[in-house]
Amino acid sequence: MITLEKAQQHLDSWLDAELKVSKKGQSYSLGSRTLTYANLSEIRKQIDYWSSKVAVCKIEESGKTVRRAKRFVPRDL
Which candidate in 4, 10, 20, 28 could, as Cys together with 57 as Cys, close a disulfide (CB 3.0–4.6 Å)? Predict the structure, then answer.
């Protein structure tokens, strides 16, 4: 189980990674070689993932339940 502290650590790490990539760029070239630091879209996906994990952990720690809405469409076969 992921704790709030661990989820927050991961989120902070990904936010730091986004800052570093945005300042330095995603890649650089040296001669004919190119080095890619990170994929910014992947970093943003991870930020979204860990943000939602932090939110869920906060809700769970407060003693409330996480409600998930589901939608269905009845079909007459």
Answer: 4
SS3 (DSSP) at 77:
coil
Sign of the Cα pseudo-torsion (20, 21, 25, 27, in order): positive
Q: Can you give the pLDDT of all 77 residues of the chain as single tens digits?
A: 889 999 999 999 999 988 888 877 677 778 888 877 678 889 999 999 999 999 999 988 888 776 667 788 888 87
The torsion angles phi and psi of 29, rounded to 5 degrees, stand at: -115, 145
Measured distance CA(1)–CA(6) in Å, rounded: 10
| Rounded CA separation 5/31 (Å) | 43
Q: Which residues pair with 29 in a beta bridge?
A: 34
Sign of CA dihedral 41, 44, 50, 53: negative
